[in-house]
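User: Predict Tannase and feruloyl esterase's structure from this.
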Amino acid sequence: MKSTFYLFCSIVLLAVSQRSYAQSTDQVINQYIDAVGGRSNLSKIKSMSIERQSEINGMKVTSNETILIGTGYRSEINLGNIYQTTETYNPKEAFISNLISGNKSTQNMPDAKYAAGKDKIFSTMGLLLKYKNLGYTAETLGSERSDGAELVKIRLTSPAGVESLYYFNRKTYLLIKSITILNSFGLKKEMISQYDDYRQIQNIKYPYRLLSNNNVAGLFLSSEITKIEINQSINSKIFERPAGQSEKITTNQFEPIYKNIMPTCQCEDLIQFKVPNTKIIFAKRESSDNSCRVTAIVNHPPFNDSVTVFLALPQDKWNGRFQGTGGGGFQGGTSESLNQPVTQGFSTGSTDGGHPDARGTFAFDEKNNRFDWQAIRNFSHVAIHDMTTLGKIITEKYYGNTPKYSYFVGGSNGGRQAMESVQRYPLDYNGVIAACPAIYWNHFLLGFLWPTAVMNDAKHYVSREKLAAVTQAVIKAWDDKDGVIDGVIEDPLKCKWDPQEFVGTKVGNDLFTIADADVVRQIWEGPKTKRGEFLWYGLTKGSNLSDYAFTSGIPLKAIPNGLIDDWVKYFLIGDPKFDLGTVDINEFEKLFIQSVEQYSYLYQTSNTDLSTFKNNGGKLIITHGLADNMIPPQGSIQYYNTLVATMGSYKKTAEFSRLFLYPGLDHSFFGLGASTNQNEFFKALVKWTEKDSAPEFFEAQTIDNPSVKENVKVKIYPFK
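Assistant:
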């Protein structure tokens, strides 16, 4: 009886304690507002301009956000010498400008993404300040512990039904994490942001460090603010759709194969369609581009895996063709990559590669302490083949006709996926573009660790400023070798300049030293064994070294790229806590050999027996920038030379496969060198495949280089 009484008292005390400690949503948000500067100071914020140094899926870039409170939001990415607007919101609409593809038209934001992001025009602080006026409902969901801190959790639900979770530190009431949940083509997707390093700027506190995992776009981002301006004058016209840029990309670029063809069923009817080992979970019309969107999950018994396939089919004006699209980094692909091809009249597909985010964590099952080999196979090649097969089946079901021609377009990892299709599934596609392809994936990824190993071995770390300065020095020294001074090394593979020539030069408040020169020389030479034997290629001279050999901190230390961090931890070592920052050349050699040997079958797309693809009429265009700051172009050159040897001659190879190399262009195909509109590559591929008219060269123009005013012709490698 006594024990029952004590138990009852304990329950009552616990309940009273929890109730007295509970807080209303208003209390939590008000304490956050007070913590970051107070309601009065936040209300005075009319605009914000934020510049960040960011790493997106392993690539280091500068990104910008511009917010005019209540009027507009725009995010941009700096890809070298131009800004590429990625997304813009205003009170009436949101749109995407896809300048990276060379297309200056804008596209409407997909419905679900617009619903989730339309209140970005108020900023996170502004949203929490005005959430009631904006029609949001809110509730407190209790608390949880994370990294030793207690976090208070609240949920806001927008008038459109989009839920967002906010986590505040119980002690400081600063915002630590937010999660926006939306239904993206039948899948619950999360956009996760983590905030850290709050600093005082004018009268408010703002987080200078951001980690973001956007499972909708397939992006993993880490960034730090380098510049922030508050209440600067901003022209509201930058948030308007540019004059002359239509809402939809024109569909008349490609002549329709079939005349007056229309869907044979309603889009929603596809949800009932049965395909073995496949479940169609979503089939619905998307109003932003008048397409039928389909999402399906493919399984491979006896494995308990799932490959997600995204498809988009034009409601009208289907051109009779199918286009597959690839991903980047550890991202298999996203539904967003379908926006452009579907508005051009293609039925089109992509896949998540068997995992929902842009990380490589899927390869290692921490719970069972083992590698997940089916997930590794899916990302390698199975998922792309699943997408292609299902895409053609659904296309035939929807229109009553099969695609007459099928094309695949991918860059970086998408370029590797393109080569996987050509080599493993040569009948899947009639035409393929592999841009800056990661053909030797299991080689080049380890290259990201080489600068760390070199610096650790030498116990000498070179600053980003010195890396940038020595890069400009080699460009200046070899710029005129082609007779034109344009800030570009025409053929960096022939460049003999040695960083010893830069020793003694002042860089900021420091001098470039012999030790600096030794490190830079080894990075350019590329990975070698401790005995000096060749392992793989380094970046070409003139490429951006500061992205590849990243250093930071006081004192300086080497910071490995995020892609290699995941590759070593989850594909090689099987230890998420492994510290890559300590790797020296001896350890590097072991990891390199393991990577090459362990994944040569799954991730080395170097098979040059393309006879089936060729005999089926297949056409392959490979492009690569000679200043690629992530994947050395020597890999593409090595593959093509080996392909020529296999085919027996350059002439026989050029009948179905052609390589085009672009001086001065980086991994995103930007730089001071002349570039070709990415749509021109695709139009040339279609013409070659369907009309047997092969491209002999591509017209190229400089985007932002006043030194060069004339167009140039980029000829087929080896420039014959």
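Residues 443-600 form one domain.
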